[in-house]
Specification:
There is one protein chain. By secondary structure, this protein is of the alpha/beta class. The protein contains 15 helices and 7 strands. A 5-stranded mixed beta sheet has the order 5-4-3-6-7, with helices on both faces. A two-stranded antiparallel sheet has the order 1-2. Helix 12 links the parallel strand 6 and strand 7. The relative contact order is 0.09.
């Protein structure tokens, strides 16, 4: 009988033939020649379906069962799981490793980059698939510890209600227009400081986050004081000129000492008129500046807690700002803040 060519795995029909031939006393060499299979393949198959059969004299003799062999094959095949989608695409694997290890991207951001370069990579991957590859050790250099949060899942926080410990300074967040709360209007910001050393001494970062586009502006301040905060806002106003009032319609801050100069933050350094509106969160209510808090987590990928801000130059701070503004964001459907921010700037008179 002509041998079968190109068959990778032995089929159940072939196993039935092996059982019949082996029961009739055929040797492994004869079975291999009859089926057109490699001799070692037949030996492995006889071992897979091996069992001991009792004769009429109650003697045990070696036998082969097609059903036993098929059950063993099916069980092991099920354990293999779905083949890796990434396959032998070493270029894509290297891109994922470099993006997470050196670019400090999350699997979500990497998935957006791969989708944009689909013609280059020839496929797309969902974030969950990339997470699974990392967790299962598919990559040579990448482990769960290399992920932005060290592989730890973020726990959902319980919904909190504002706690009225003391009356917020001047305008409370409760007076902020509803359109700002719903992120339906451009030009409304949140502002916070990021410290390096735990005692808060030395230089700090002043961080502004636009609520709609998540555009980030970072200043390196000499100290965590109200005077330094006003100085940075004055510098920002000179940069934007007449458009400042449109771009920075409101700024929401907490009740920290660096934000105590309410009038200085609101008053223009160019015309002495009001340049923006300042709203204060309730005490101990950081979730009311959620965009700020998320942006601060991105900064911490580059500046860990406890490391002095003085260790970083102005150029390095601007590089971090550029990275954040050009980082693909899930909440922006894969877009980056910089592109959306530029679009809104072009619409201003």
């Amino acid at each position: 009988m002509a041998g079968r060519k190109g068959a990778k795995h032995i089929t159940y029909l072939e196993r039935i033939k092996i059982e019949a031939l082996y029961t009739n006393g055929k040797k492994a060499q004869e079975i291999a020649a009859y089926l057109g299979r490699n001799l070692s393949c037949i030996y492995k198959e006889l071992k897979r379906g091996y069992y001991e059969r009792l004769t009429t004299d109650l003697l045990k003799i070696p036998a082969y069962s097609a059903d036993i062999a098929q059950q063993d094959y099916d069980y092991k095949a099920a354990g293999k799981g779905v083949p890796l989608k990434i396959g032998q695409n070493h270029h894509l694997a290297a891109f994922i490793e470099n993006a997470i290890l050196y670019g400090k991207y999350s699997p979500v951001a990497v998935a957006f980059c791969i989708a944009r370069e689909r013609d280059t990579f020839g496929l797309t991957l969902c974030p969950r698939t990339i997470y699974n590859y990392v967790e299962n050790g598919v990559f040579l250099r990448l482990t769960e510890k290399d992920l932005p949060r060290g592989g730890k899942r973020r726990r959902r926080k319980a919904v909190r209600t504002p706690c009225h410990v003391k009356r917020p300074l001047c305008q409370s967040i409760e007076e902020r227009p509803q359109e700002v709360e719903g992120r339906k209007a451009f030009g409304h910001w949140e502002m916070d400081t990021v410290v390096g050393q735990r005692n808060g001494s030395g230089p700090v970062l002043l961080v502004l986050t636009e609520r709609m586009t998540r555009q980030e502006i970072i200043f390196k301040m000499r100290s965590k004081t109200a005077a330094e905060t006003v100085r940075c806002l004055n510098r920002l106003e000179r940069q934007y000129g007449a458009k400042f009032r449109q771009v920075f319609q409101s700024i929401t801050v907490d009740n920290g000492a660096e934000f105590m100069d309410f009038e200085g933050m609101q008053k223009s350094c160019l015309s002495k008129k009001r340049r923006t509106r300042i709203y204060y969160c309730h005490p101990f209510s950081s979730w009311e500046r959620g965009s700020n808090e998320n942006a601060n987590r991105l900064i911490r990928r580059f500046i860990p807690k406890g490391v002095p801000i003085s260790n970083y130059s102005q150029a390095q701070i601007k590089d971090i700002q550029y990275w954040i503004n050009n980082y693909p964001r899930k909440l922006l459907k894969g877009d980056c803040s910089a592109a959306l921010f530029r679009q809104f700037l072009l619409t201003l008179a």
